TrEMBL record:
InterPro entries: DNA-bd_pseudobarrel_sf (IPR015300). One of its GO terms (cellular component) is nucleus. The lineage of its organism: Eukaryota, Viridiplantae, Streptophyta, Embryophyta, Tracheophyta. Its main location: nucleus. It comes from Rubus argutus (Southern blackberry). The keyword Transcription regulation applies. It comes from the Eukaryota. Keywords: DNA-binding, Nucleus, Transcription, Transcription regulation. It is found in: Nucleus. SUPFAM superfamilies: DNA-binding pseudobarrel domain (SSF101936). GO terms for molecular function: DNA binding. The keyword Nucleus applies. Signal peptide: none annotated. This is TF-B3 domain-containing protein.
């Protein structure tokens, strides 16, 4: 894992990243997640949104290294979902049912929350960013 974080940080040094955390592999993408406006995140990751906030804007690195802004929303049961832009990410990245994606979170020098998603972990680790 430390090697993955190190490689990740060298790919985007201009973001001034700090507090990098590998959230890990999300379960394989389902039909409902591919066709939905939202992506559910692991319950264990709910610490990232302050308790007094129901949603926050996050900057998001797509697998193609394009950046977009998404909303991270806390649901009634406490879990988090990426909303407002997820469908566009799915469409532009051409995600397929059953793909496994890895998600990283980090804060930049201005303490803003960023997420980065990658679905070709082996190529990323080896430094070959072929898409």
């Amino acid at each position: 894992m430390e090697y993955m974080i190190e490689k990740f940080m060298t790919k985007w040094p201009k973001a001034g990243m700090k507090e990098v955390q590998v959230i890990g592999d999300l379960p394989p993408l389902s039909v409902s997640e591919i066709c939905s406006d939202k992506l559910a995140l692991p319950q264990s990751w709910s610490y990232s949104v302050p308790c007094n906030r129901r949603e926050i804007s996050v900057w998001f690195y797509r697998p193609s290294l394009k950046v977009c802004e998404l909303e991270l929303k806390r649901c009634e049961d406490g879990h988090l979902e990426l909303t407002s832009g997820w469908r566009d990410v799915v469409h532009k990245e051409n995600f397929k049912v059953g793909e496994v994606v890895t998600l990283w979170s980090f804060k930049d020098a201005k303490n803003r929350l960023w997420l980065a998603m990658h679905y070709k972990v082996k190529e990323f680790i080896e430094g070959s960013m072929n898409y």
